[in-house]
Write a structure and sequence with these properties.
Elements (H helix, E strand, L loop, with lengths): L2 H14 L6 E5 L2 E4 H4 L10 H14 L8 E3 L4 H7 L2 H4 L13 E8 L2 E8 L4 E5 L7 H19 L9 E4 L14 H12 L12 H14 L4
Parallel strand pairs: 3-4, 6-7
Antiparallel strand pairs: 1-2, 4-5, 5-6
Helix pairs in contact: 1-8, 3-7
Length: 224
């Protein structure tokens, strides 16, 4: 039996056998159940647990030789930040200096849509990725303000806002989704390519394959 066949039967089993509450993977203080994994079925809407687990896998990989150092906030961070202020999320980075990284990933949950904000500390750039092409300039500004306050608080260093570039990626710059449910997969794959410093060359056609691959990766806690 080839690896691909073994992988396919394992993925099918994850979707089809057993109880919804069976735990299929545990890491990053998360327990992923069969019900969570089933959101990776075609046209399923990825939930917070899947998003956060996948971000955890990206951060783990970034510790290896040859990858940029990556920090990922969890999916609840931005809604908390935008509804409070730096004060409301100060404790989230307790004992961590996020500025020691090359890239910061901020997955964003906008009611019924997933998007991704990326901070590249190497080039002082904040970029917003939306597979439905909406602009997120206000989101970029909110995060820059957060970075200024976090820098002052944690390192006693003033960031110079004028040195930073903020940019919402246009529909001609990044692939766009062709249905109402793939936004979470797009966010995970934007984050995957960015955390390897790779150009974003996938398209909406890759989504069914990416979904299946993510099932295997989450169960095995290992990116292919």
């Amino acid at each position: 039996e080839s690896f691909v066949q073994a992988m396919e039967s394992e993925i099918s089993a994850a979707f089809d056998s057993g109880e919804p509450e069976d735990i299929l993977s545990r890491a990053f203080k998360l327990a992923v159940t069969r019900e969570d994994i089933c959101t990776l079925q075609p046209l399923g809407w990825l939930n917070d647990k899947i998003m956060n687990f996948y971000m955890g896998l990206l951060v783990e990989r970034s510790k290896k030789e040859g990858y940029p150092a990556v920090y990922a906030f969890n999916t609840f961070f931005y809604s908390k930040l935008s509804s409070t202020s730096h004060k409301g999320v100060k404790k989230w980075t307790k004992g961590v200096d996020i500025f020691e990284n090359d890239v910061i990933l901020v997955p964003i949950h906008l009611r019924i849509h997933w998007t991704l904000l990326v901070v590249d500390l190497r080039e002082k750039a904040i970029k917003y990725f939306d597979s439905l092409g909406q602009k997120g300039d206000h989101i970029c500004k909110t995060v820059l303000k957060y970075l200024e306050e976090e820098s002052k608080e944690k390192r006693n260093i003033e960031l110079t806002a004028s040195e930073w570039t903020l940019h919402s990626m246009g529909t001609e710059e990044i692939p766009q989704q062709s249905n109402g449910s793939d936004c979470g997969v797009f966010v995970c794959k934007f984050a995957d390519f960015i955390s390897r410093d790779k150009p974003i060359i996938f398209t909406t056609e890759h989504m069914p394959y990416f979904r299946r691959k993510m099932v295997w990766e989450i169960i095995h806690q290992q990116l292919l």
